[in-house]
Amino acid sequence: MDYLNAFWVGGLICALVQILLEKTKMMPGRVMVLLVCLGAVLSAVGIYEPFAEYAGAGASVPLLGFGHVLMKGVKEAVDAEGLMGLFSGGFQAGAVGCAAALIFGLLAAFVFNPKMKK
């Protein structure tokens, strides 16, 4: 049942974002920032954690999940370090995901022959 919940929740998030892109004149970069900020706000309010437990990877893989990770890191760092954790917590929490994306992107560029669009 966990796989089914992850599938339909992740698919629903992606479908709603696609509808948002199609029906509005918002650029993809702005939609991505909106999703990260929405994930952070939902995490700060306390809604995202139960949602992520229910949906698993369907909620943690999209950009909403990245906003949640950032906010979770900030909360933990503020509890541990005080006000300075506000500045360092998001970086510490999101560093592994960002580093993995950079490394795997670099490996993909070495394996495949990227070409510029004409």
What is the assembly state of the chains in this entry? single chain
Determine the strand fraction and express it as a percent band: under 5%
| Dominant shape | globular
End-to-end distance, in Å?
45 Å
The mean pLDDT is 90
| Uncertain spans | none
What are the secondary-structure elements, in order, as H or E? HHHHHH
Biggest sheet overview: none
List how many beta strands DSSP finds: 0
Gyration radius, in Å: 17 Å
**What is the percent of helical residues?**
over 70%
Category from helices, strands and their pairing: mainly alpha
**Total helical elements:** 6
Number of separate structural domains: 1
Produce a short descriptive summary.
The chain is mostly helical and 118 residues long.
Please give a structural write-up.
The structure is a single chain. The model has no long low-confidence stretch (mean pLDDT 90). α2 (28-45) packs across α5. The protein has helices at 2-23, 28-45, 48-55, 57-60, 63-81, 85-111. The protein has 118 residues and is mostly helical. It has one domain. The N and C termini lie far apart (45 Å). The protein contains six helices and no strands.
Outline the secondary-structure elements.
Blueprint: H1 2-23, H2 28-45, H3 48-55, H4 57-60, H5 63-81, H6 85-111
